[in-house]
Amino acid sequence: MSAFLSVTRPRFAAAWGRVSQTVARTPVVLLTAAFAGLVFIPWLGAVGLWDPWETHYSEVGRQMLTRGDWIHPYWEHAWFFSKPALVPWLAALGLALADGTHAHGELGRYTEWAIRMPVALLAMGAIGLLSHAVSRLASRTAGLACGFSLATMPLFFFTARQAMTDMPFVATVTMAWACALLGQLDTQASAATRSRWWFGFYVAMGVAVLGKGLLGGLPAVGWVLFWSFSRSRREVFKTLHSQMQQMKLFYGTVLFAAIALPWYLAMLAFDGRDNEGLLFGQRFFLHDHLNRLLTGVHSTTPGGTFIYFIEQGGYGIFPWVALLPGALAEWLRNDVGHQSPRAQLTLWAGLSCLLAFALFASSATQFHHYILPALPSLAVLLGLFVARLLDEGPRPHAAALLIGATLFGLVGHDLVVQPRHFVDLFTYNYERPYPDFLVSQPLWAQAPVWLTFKVALAGALTVGALAAFTGVLCRGSRGLLLAHAALAGGLALALSWGHWVSLSHHWTQRDLFWRYWRQRGPSEPIAAFYMDWKGETFYSRNEVVQLKPENYATELPKFLARPGRKWVLTEHVRVNGLKGMIGPSHSVRIVEPALNNKFVLMTID
């Protein structure tokens, strides 16, 4: 054995040294983006699109392809004005690549993968660019920690796997902020390079406006706030003209307008109306912007306070909540008047995080995932704190680490008791039945029965708490942070590669429609009874017969009168009511009732 070790140990050390040198030479932007891709991309298309958001926007994109109209969004039988065109455009691009342009039948095998991939790539780009900015303005360690922490925050990586509007918005806003930081604070770069970063700021902000509407202007608001706090009032007015020249304000505004405005101008000139008879301006700006902010339309959590987003933020960044007190202390101890790039970066991160939190906490419409825009700037503070922790050791930060360990235990306890907090971060209806069997089964087929999701998570919490306690007592930062990084990375991969996939089968209708398309006979129709979950429209290619409360009294008899076998999709809780309406004159059979815990497919003969 000693002879074997004497031969293998030097070889291992040499190989490890080569790997370490390669990593050290690899740019931060590539390392962090590649790691993010490792979390986001595997099994991205293995499961169907989640209802209702993914299927809704993807159907609008499919209509763009089938109608040949990429300007005016369309849904079912009316114009769709609630969201900008970026996500439907990305969905349409994915459908075109995945051969989703034919009019009938089952969608292609790679449809979901192609639809989600642009969103995942945007998220990867945002992480890489933000990490690059932090590494240039602070340190390589801070940049790597920033990118790693952001990629392993559950809310961020779950949303990166979803074809919905939030990640394209947050990703492009994050890119805009990173470009502005590099253009403003990277004094080691040439003037031409900094100018290019400023143009990147305007491009990213223009795309953000196409992704989320007026909220895409958040980088401009945040930059004005940062500029105002970073200098005295006299300096602000004294240097305003030179600042406008440095950030290429005139040409940049022209570039921003050229990207962001044409689609909106075309829509404002359009005289079509949506299913409620509203013009684009009435629906988009008044109802879906102003009323969301003031009256709470569409909200599933009315009356929520700022405490609501603190709670959801704790779930959304777990397990990085353990370092949250230290990250906030990093901002509070910062010298506002200091003009070093690191100090200015810290000031920006704190202000932008506060701006995002205040904006969405004050909105009357609230969803769990509305805290998402605060996560990138919070990751910057975390990266800066990790770098300081490695430099100074844990002892000067013992109080912050112990408070963080307490938060870690409290949030972790909630997640062990109620794992559905993870899926609630990015879904629409928090009362929807959760497949509890997923947390009472082994993590893999060969695992012992006792190794359940909850036991594994509880064990990870225990290991993390012991590592934190040991790190503080032993004054060793490296082991503490390595243990925490292993916990964060392992949890991210387990949730992203495994748990998300298992959950998806119960939040998508794809599996049910696979049965329908593959078992149906010629001209056998399908109806959706009392459904408005969007997947029935997308996966049927808008061929489903809608039986809703306002029409099923008259339309259901017509549907039943059709010759041959019929198919019906509904919710489990409505099966008995539907059977009673059908009556004994027809034979009803449920197709694989355990396939989905929300929806059920039935045949009627």
Give an overview of the whole structure.
The protein is mainly α and 605 residues long. The protein has a domain at 510-604. It is 63% helix and 4% strand. It is built from 26 helices and seven strands. It has helices at residues 2-25, 28-40, 53-67, 86-97, 111-137, 140-151, 154-160, 166-185, 191-212, 218-230, 233-238, 240-246, 249-268, 280-294, 306-317, 324-332, 341-361, 375-392, 398-417, 420-424, 453-474, 477-507, 510-519, 535-538, 552-560, 575-582, and strands at residues 74-75, 78-79, 526-529, 545-547, 566-571, 588-591, 599-604. The strands form two sheets. The protein has a five-stranded mixed sheet, sandwiched between helices. A hairpin with a 2-residue loop joins strand 1 and strand 2. Helix 2 packs antiparallel against helix 5 (111-137). The longest helix is centred in the last third of the chain and has 31 residues, at 477-507.
